Each structure stands twice: as C-alpha cells, then as structure tokens.
C-alpha cells in the first residue's frame, strides 16, 4: 500500500447570479449541491493522482446541512478536504461559506461526498492510505 499525497484543503469559488436563484430569491439548493459535487470531485481526483485509477464517480452524498441562505451577488467559497480512505473510495468533507457584499462571512452548508475510484469503468482498489499530519 502506498501513501497518498498529502492534500492541502482546496477552495473553489463562484458568485450567485440571477439564474441560480429559486422562487424565494435565494440560492437554489440543487445548484449549491451541484457546485459542491464538482468541488469535492476535484479534491478526490487530485488525491487519487498516481493511484492508477482513470476516473471516479460520486457514490454517496451525506449529512447535508443547509444552515442559512445565500443571495444574489454573494460569493460562495467551497472548502474541501479528504476525510477518509476506503479500498476503492475516498470521502471528502466540504463546507460552503458565503461572503456578502459587505464582506460578512457565514457558513451556509456542509456535507460529505464519497467517490469511488474507477479503472476502465469498474471500481478500482487504489491502494492508497492516509498520510499523517
């Protein structure tokens, strides 16, 4: 089993535009989850570099907590980090933080995503193990 490369926390950012709003005028939860999935998958992909896998898929989304809404013009930062390694999987934690036009910052959502490493379209035992701090 080889040691995984130490992954620093990663940040992905987007701005809330009108087309991202729901009928209540807040960021649509489905849009936020879609962006969170993209950010978490990029984190998992980078963590799997050198493992021999040629892709990955989202297998599970868990413990999604919508805490407060985001509004038009807010900047949303998605902070990701690898939490756990399985035989074929990697679990990524993610936190969404909004930055309002006045600079105030608040956590709006958190969750975890589990990805399965693939090779030729089938689950792949990546043989990576966590790296200590």
TrEMBL record:
One of its GO terms (cellular component) is cytoplasm. It comes from the Bacteria. Gene3D superfamilies: Hotdog Thioesterase. One of its GO terms (molecular function) is long-chain fatty acyl-CoA hydrolase activity. The keyword Hydrolase applies. The keyword Hydrolase applies. Keywords: Hydrolase. InterPro entries: Cytosol_ACT, HOTDOG_ACOT, HotDog_dom_sf, Thioestr_dom. Residues 6-121 form the HotDog ACOT-type domain. One of its GO terms (biological process) is acyl-CoA metabolic process. Belongs to the acyl coenzyme A hydrolase family. PANTHER family: ACYL COENZYME A THIOESTER HYDROLASE (PTHR11049). This is Acyl-CoA thioesterase.
């Amino acid at each position: 089993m080889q040691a995984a490369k130490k992954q620093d926390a990663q940040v992905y950012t987007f701005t809330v535009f009108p087309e991202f709003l729901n009928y209540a005028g807040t960021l649509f939860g489905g849009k936020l989850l879609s962006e969170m999935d993209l950010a978490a998958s990029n984190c998992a992909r980078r963590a799997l570099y050198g493992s021999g896998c040629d892709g990955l898929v989202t297998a599970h989304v868990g413990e999604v907590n919508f805490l407060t809404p985001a509004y038009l013009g807010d900047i949303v930062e998605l902070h990701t980090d690898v939490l756990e390694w399985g035989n074929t999987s990697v679990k990524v934690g993610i936190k969404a933080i909004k930055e309002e036009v006045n600079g105030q910052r608040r956590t709006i959502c958190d969750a975890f995503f589990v990805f399965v490493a693939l090779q030729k379209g089938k689950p792949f035992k990546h043989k990576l193990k966590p790296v200590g701090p």
